[in-house]
Amino acid sequence: MLVINNRKIGNNRPVYITAELSINYNGKLAIALELVEKAAECGVDVVKLQIVYADGSYDKQSPSYDIFRRNELPIEQWGKVCERGSDLGLDLIATFGNHLDVKHNEELDLSAIKISSSNLTNVMMLASVAATRKPLVLSTGMGYLSEVDEAVRILEQDGPKSIAVLQCTSIYPTSPKDVNLNVIKTLEQAFPKCTIGFSDHSMGIACVIASIACGARVIEKHFTLDRKMNGPDHYFSATPEELKALVDAVREVELALGSSVKCPTPGERVLRSQVQRTLVSAVEIKKGEKIQADKLTSKRTQTDGIQPKFLKIICGRVAKRDIRSDTPISWNDL
After folding, report:
1. In the predicted model, what is the mean pLDDT of residues 281-306?
2. pLDDT of 161 over the 90 cut
3. Is the pLDDT score of 159 beyond 80?
4. Reported pTM
5. In the predicted model, what is the mean pLDDT of the chain?
6. Between the chain's N and C termini, which has fewer beta carbons within 10 Å?
7. Which residues in the chain are classed under CATH 3.90.1210.10?
8. Which long-range contacts link 186-192 to residues 24+ away (Cβ below 8 Å)?
9. 3-state helix, strand, coil in the chain (%, to 5)
10. Residue 46 CA, distance from chain mean position
11. Predicted confidence (pLDDT) at residue 235 exceeds the cutoff of 90
12. For the residues 136-147, what does the mean pLDDT come to?
């Protein structure tokens, strides 16, 4: 089970909601700070940072090199972002682009470390984050179940860890037909000791809400101040208004999921006696006459009587008194 800052996450506990900053801060500390502040206003539990330095993470011929190079922040500025988030009561977690950068987690005082889908099979990254003994969140986009299993084994190689495994599809944005929320159940069966969640790259909030009903207890959603901003991730990220709606909807669904025990709620127990049907005489029944089904009907009454589920039991019994037509039948009448 995932445990972050003494908070247990999983089973029937509240969903852990993550606002993913991605590179939507556009290489500017001021925007990163504003994103953290807006995320806090929306009511999320945690902000996820993407701390990537292009020289250590990408070949210079890679299209990603220039994108991440333009959006780098010095580690000191990331420290300010973490400090602001902490002041606002948020947990802070981060992904690192290179295993050599994982060392920064200590100076940033991160609550947990996230392994991105692109590092699912990177044994150097997996070993580095495992060595921190921090809580870990593993995304599984582009991966086979066998690769997820191998990654979890590496993360646990020197002892049990606090781990969450997230269903993820690494297409931006993801079409609903490619989200595959049923994988959440597969991951629950494959990794019973881990908390299972969902990293969402679809448009809107519908898939996130559905994931809660499928069992996700950690969710992650990309977040931007404005979809019209320049950058590769803004256009499919949630706006502050959408993120707030997502948080509210998740909390409502949590309440709606309720208990797995089928029984009347307290409110239903009161209503039950008022609205359920009672056996009523369809005709006049004389004292000493046998009760038969064709002499009865069922109605909602204001008087307590015998429920229709007992029809077979009372048929053939004898009336102890005269019963007028359209009268609720009680056990005292038999």
Report:
1. 94
2. no
3. no
4. 0.90
5. 96
6. C
7. 266-333
8. 186/145, 187/140, 187/148, 188/215, 190/145, 190/148, 190/149, 191/148, 191/149, 191/152, 191/163, 191/165
9. 40, 20, 40
10. 14
11. yes
12. 98
Domain covering 266-333 in this structure, CATH number: 3.90.1210.10
CA–CA separation, 2 vs 113, rounded Å? 12
CA distances from 95 to 104, 139, 145 (A): 11, 10, 21
Selection from 301, 296, 311 nearest residue 273 by Cα: 301
Examine the pLDDT at 160 and tell me if it is beyond 90: no
Q: Are 25 and 72 in contact (CB under 8 A)?
A: no
Is the distance from CB of 285 to CB of 323 less than 8 angstroms? Answer: yes
Given a cut of 80, is residue 158 above it in pLDDT? no
For residue 290, give Cα distances in angstroms to 240, 294, 320.
71, 11, 10
CATH 3.20.20.70 location in the chain: 2-257
pLDDT band (50, 70, 90) for residue 274? confident
235-242 long-range contacts (CB < 8 A, ≥24 apart) are: 235/173, 236/172, 236/173, 236/201, 236/202, 236/203, 237/20, 237/22, 237/24, 238/205, 240/38, 240/41, 240/42, 242/204, 242/205
CA-to-CA separations, 63 to 34, 66, 97, 240, in angstroms, rounded: 28, 6, 15, 29
Q: Report the pLDDT averaged over residues 204-223.
A: 97
Residue-level pLDDT at 153:
96
Residue in this structure with the two tokens 């993913």, named with its chain if needed: 20
Tokens of 210: 């559905």
Yes or no: is domain 2-257 CATH 3.30.470.10? no
